[in-house]
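Sequence in, structure out. First:
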Amino acid sequence: MKTKIYLIALVLISSLMLSCSSDDELNHQNDFEKSQSAWLDFKKSSNNSYKYVVSGGTVFSAYGWETTITVSNGKVIQRHFKYTGNTENIPDSIPLEWTEEESEINSYENSPAAEALTVDQIYSKAEKEWLIKRKDVTVYFEAKNNGLISSCGYVPKGCMDDCFFGIRIKSIQSYNPK
């Protein structure tokens, strides 16, 4: 008899827990899904060929940086990096600007340049890493590039400076290879 009672209690508790779980596994799920849909439309209209610019910087310096990623037919073919702003304090041994062509993508290591990803890969990373629900972080998602992802990531609560984990995309535009 006790076994039946425990079994019934277990079934009731399990069903209660399942009914309370949310269908939303992501922060900003609705905005993310709308943006991803806009991305799929853009991807089709641009023949999966586009350029996007990732921006970055630090709170303490007077300079920032931009990385332009060029994608042709769904494949990254170029990564261009440049420091922006007041670059006087950057040592002469560090190049202020450089370009990697298809065969040398990601060869500049230990730089603040954005990783050479397709926008499909960025949406995947957003869904699997940056927007997942977790404690003790503030999550951000914006789609200011005509509905396409513009800022996505999180900041641990209590962090004061340069703690953003994610991506900031300044612009996304079609690319017509010649």
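Second:
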Amino acid sequence: MKTLFVICNVVFLSFITGCSLYAQGPEVMEEKKEQLKAHRIAFITERLRLTPEEAQRFWPVYNQHEMEREEEMKSFRKRFKYDPEDIPGLTDQEAEVFIDARLEHEQKLLDLRKKYNVQLKEVLSPQKIVILYEVENEFRKELLRKLGEFQDRKRPGPGMH
């Protein structure tokens, strides 16, 4: 299992360093997204200590939830492409529309989470579900930390402009 974790860290680090390859095209970014997905799968599987039987039942539920969540996120971003700098220029009416849409979006995400939770109860114990939520938070924190480290390496040092 430690070997798997080391391999996943290598894949993960190659994803982070590969972010600079964005300019090379969508194929490269798609490959990096797949590497990140593989790292997430290994991370969650290891931390939850999923048995092969649990993993076989768990991953289709998890992947379906992620797909539905991503679709909702894309749909919302497509409708509202506001840059934070644009917000002061919104009319009151535009701001009201955005507020209502944002609340509707958050409710849809919550409804998806509730549906997902019901499905998870069919494949994991309640304890493992609680652990899953913590593991997902750990993964996000790790991703943000490594992304920050990557960005720090790209910044010029003092006196190097």
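Remark: DSSP finds five helices and no strands in the chain.
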